[in-house]
Amino acid sequence: MNSSHAVRPLAALALGLALCLLTATAAGAQAVTPSAAAARAQAPASASAQVQAPPAICTPTAGRHRKLAARMSRGITAALQGRSSVVSLAAADTRTGITCSFHPRRHFHSASIVKVIILGALLRHLAAEHRDLSAEQVTLTTEMITESSNSAATTLWDMLGRRHLQRFLNLAKMTHATLGTDGFWGLTRVTAHDEMLLLKVLKGRHSILDKPSRSYAMSLMANVIASQRWGVTAGAPADMTAHVKNGWLPDPVLWVINSIGVFTGPGRHYRIVVLTRDNPDMTYGVDTVQDVAEVINRDLNPGATDVVPASAPYPSWGTPDEQIPAR
Description:
This protein is an alpha+beta fold.
């Protein structure tokens, strides 16, 4: 065998080793590439998430109110800044077409705002049977709404029964609401989204309640006693009528503070719902609701100078609206 033949096997061996190394290197690169690509893909997404603006709380249906909706969103965000309250809200205005929504499907115990559901269910049931309110029912509904009487609410709750109460929720499309059990109507679970539907039942063209029933319910909510007219009324023009119902409840220690209302005036109306929980006391929760309401009422009524002031604490504040089971 000459020298040239001796070199060829060595060259072939070297070439084979080189090819093996190249193959192993390529395989290793392919194994690393997916995770590296994923890391590179995640980096820009994280960066953009950090600088992305939060979704708007208020939105217009018409372009000319875009700036107003943006101002309302900023105002509500500022009002909630630093608050320990867990908050959900919704609003809708017929004049501007602006709607506001912040965690609208978050659940809260209703406390006494469920009394509007009880009233609506009673009025719907009587209308379906072509009956008017009895003298006793007039007294009970008046006390339940205008004074937030718990005994009146319990009597009407028991009188109606869960079947008629649930029937009303179904007709109103309040699909996220769950009635309280064992007679604890204040532990009915509600959302801001469903409470807006309830207010629409009271002030809407295509309602499940007839006009006399709607007028009756709205008149009661317009005559709630002074010590219970806090909440969404703060900052509303004095020349508009505020139809309001509030609820307050230590649940079991931190407070649930809820406020719902319809505001009516010449040629327009709007609705506001603010639900809160985890408030350290009643006054703190009322302040949270009123800070938000003042932004909405002010911006929906530019130029209004005679407005409803935020409520100062009443002696009755801090007293539970109703009892709840021991936990």
